[in-house]
Amino acid sequence: MEIQQLQYFKTVAQLQHMTRAAEKLSISQPALSKSIANIEQELGVPLFDRQGRSILLNRYGILFLESVDIILAEYGKIMQEFGDITTPGHGEVAFGFIHTLGMEIVPELMATVPDKYPHMKFSLTQATSLNLLKRLEEGAIDLCLSQEIESKLIDIEWVDLWTEELFVIVPANHMLAQRNTIELHEIKNEPFISIKRGNSLRQIVDQFLKEAGVTAKTTFSAEEMHTVAGFVGAGLGVSLIPHIKGLEHFNVKKISVSSPPCRRKIGVAWAKGRYLSPAANEFKEFLIDYFRGEA
């Protein structure tokens, strides 16, 4: 039984006249009669009492019409919902981003979205790059902002959007606090405050330390960077982090690293070959333009 057959039945039931119903539906009367007969044959009961050219719903027809009304109403809702999803500028985007972008960059980004896409809805996820990768693999998010990520399960597209510098931070009263630049190996004897493993920032910091020949004497691994800054400001160690909003309120000095160059690239990632709704595709292009200064 098809939706069209149910729509035909409802029209006949409303008009209770086969000829007028066929005219309203713009089909031939024999075709409409055959459609109604097919429904009755499938259900195993007659739905109408025939009286000449007029037909009247019988008790089976009345019962069936109640169900048809429910089915067609739900079908209408489904078509409306998916129509909204596939209409440009409408629909929902599942968007993820790494923790370090949640303090300033993503809030400022999302503040610009309502003016450009007033009918778009967003489901936001803030997580480590490892968890974002898992959610991409599962199809739980459409897009994510992170360092470049790789999967053993799916192919991932990643577009580079911007590069950010990582700085050594030391307590404000530290002997290195008078410096504007530093070589990374100069902190090799310092206690180190790190981000926890599983975070993309931790991976790249470990890589830079290894490149500089530094074996980190990690005394604490924090969940997020403001905690790192707090521990450094309290004189408990040094660290290597990107600039964060509010860093100036901590008792730390930020120092540029001259060698090796400490920078990381941030981009937008999505599952290659997987369906992206028009809304997700629009937002992806908006992200690229926004961060490349073209929005």
Q: From the 3D structure, determine the CATH topology of the largest domain.
A: D-Maltodextrin-Binding Protein, domain 2
Beta-strand fraction estimate: 25-35%
Task: Give the biggest sheet.
Answer: 8 strands, mixed
| Portion of residues within helices | 40-55%
Which structural class do you get from the secondary structure elements?
alpha/beta
- Say which CATH homologous superfamily of the largest domain is assigned: Periplasmic binding protein-like II
Number of strands: 12
Q: Which CATH top level class of the largest domain fits? A: Alpha Beta
How widely separated are the two ends? 49 Å
Uncertain runs with pLDDT below 50, 5 residues or more? none
- What is the number of domains? 3
* Global morphology: rod-shaped
Strand and helix order: HHHEEHEHEHEEEEHEHEEEH
Q: What is the CATH-assigned architecture of the largest domain?
A: 3-Layer(aba) Sandwich
Average pLDDT rating: 90
Rg for CA atoms: 31 Å
Number of H/I helices: 9
Describe the structure.
The chain has helices at 3-15, 18-25, 29-43, 59-86, 105-116, 129-138, 200-211, 225-233, 278-291, and strands at 48-51, 54-57, 91-98, 120-127, 143-146, 156-171, 181-183, 191-195, 217-222, 239-242, 252-259, 263-271. It is an alpha/beta fold and 295 residues long. The protein folds into three domains: 3-86, Arc Repressor Mutant, subunit A; 91-161 and 265-291, 3-Layer(aba) Sandwich (D-Maltodextrin-Binding Protein, domain 2), CATH 3.40.190; 164-264, Periplasmic binding protein-like II (D-Maltodextrin-Binding Protein, domain 2), CATH 3.40.190. Strands 3, 4, 5, 6, 7, 10, 11 and 12 form an eight-stranded mixed sheet that branches. It has a two-stranded antiparallel ribbon with strand order 1-2. Helix 1 packs across helix 2 (18-25).
